[in-house]
């Protein structure tokens, strides 16, 4: 089995300091949280950015400053900026970090409910995002919140409308109204991806560590972080993203799976 790639989704676009005071907004806070995750064993940081007051933004220059600072503090780390942004943003706004030519970026594979809002990803949007990633040589992380999103990702790649194999999927399970975070659902999704693909699971909220344990056992990879969960266990706020990553490292140790360094993750993800 390959080593385990841990991704830390350190801030997201929706969570707030009111929910957990350690949620980062400023540059200094972003670097602090990225470094805590990296030091604990994360090879990948999934990046959203905020203005200092916490407002989510897809501003290209904000991404540039934050990603440069994280890279300086966490040598070699793989950065996956979000093109999902926050609900309600236009496709043009969301695409801005792709202008920085990151090695990877997220590509959200369909429309779904998101809290009380709708996360809009219609087919013209997906084709535009796929085209941009082809042009800028960016490897997508295909974000699938729903079983049907996987079909869409495979169709885009088959038609040459988005980068193809080897593909990297992130199965985000447990968003309300989307595919529930269960082991049978995860097994089904994994059974449908092309040979040679890689995959990660993100279990939302209380599902974080059950999904992590399943992925560790199945040979997949794991994402945790404040974007996805704010607590270590019921009622116990995580003090940092590093604490969440450390819990995954602990599970991996118990199950006998080694942790990938950024360099090893780059090879596993076919980035070099
Ligand atoms: N903030 C969510 C609406 C991504 O990063 O690509 C979308 C999201 C997905 O976080
Ligand atoms: Zn995200």
TrEMBL record:
The keyword Signal does not apply. Its cofactor is Zn(2+). Keywords: Metal-binding, Transferase, Zinc. It holds the Pfam family BKACE. This is 3-keto-5-aminohexanoate cleavage protein. It comes from Intestinimonas massiliensis.
